Amino acid sequence: MPRDVVFGTGTFEYLKQVKGSKAFISMGKGSMKTNGVLDQVLAYLKEAGIESIFLGQL
Predict the structure, then answer these.
(1) Could you give the C-alpha distances from 1 to 4, 40, 42, 56, in angstroms and in order?
(2) What is the pLDDT of residue 2?
(3) What pLDDT does 1 receive?
(4) Mean pLDDT of the region 3-10
């Protein structure tokens, strides 16, 4: 089972190239949700046909 931790500059471009069928997403205090990044990530994954599982704050 391949695993990648993806964050930082260029992440959205990387998401367009991800190979796989499932993604697990977690975040810190919630700024990803507040600034709309979480919605963008979920949209990229959905467009790529990748099922995503989201776990809120860690």
Answers:
(1) 10, 25, 21, 23
(2) 63
(3) 57
(4) 80
In total, how many domains does the chain have? Answer: 1
Enter the pTM of the model: 0.72
Residue 30 belongs to some domain of the structure: yes
Which residue type sits at 15? L
Residue 40 neighbours by CB distance under 10 Å:
14
- pLDDT at residue 39 greater than cutoff 80: yes
Secondary structure (DSSP) of 8-42: STTHHHHHTT--SSEEEEEESSSHHHHTTHHHHHH
Q: Please give the residue range of the domain that contains residue 40.
A: 25-58
In a domain, 42, yes or no: yes
Examine residue 50 and state whether it is found in any structural domain, yes or no: yes
Let me know if residue 20 belongs to a domain.
Answer: no
34/20 Cα distance (integer angstroms): 27
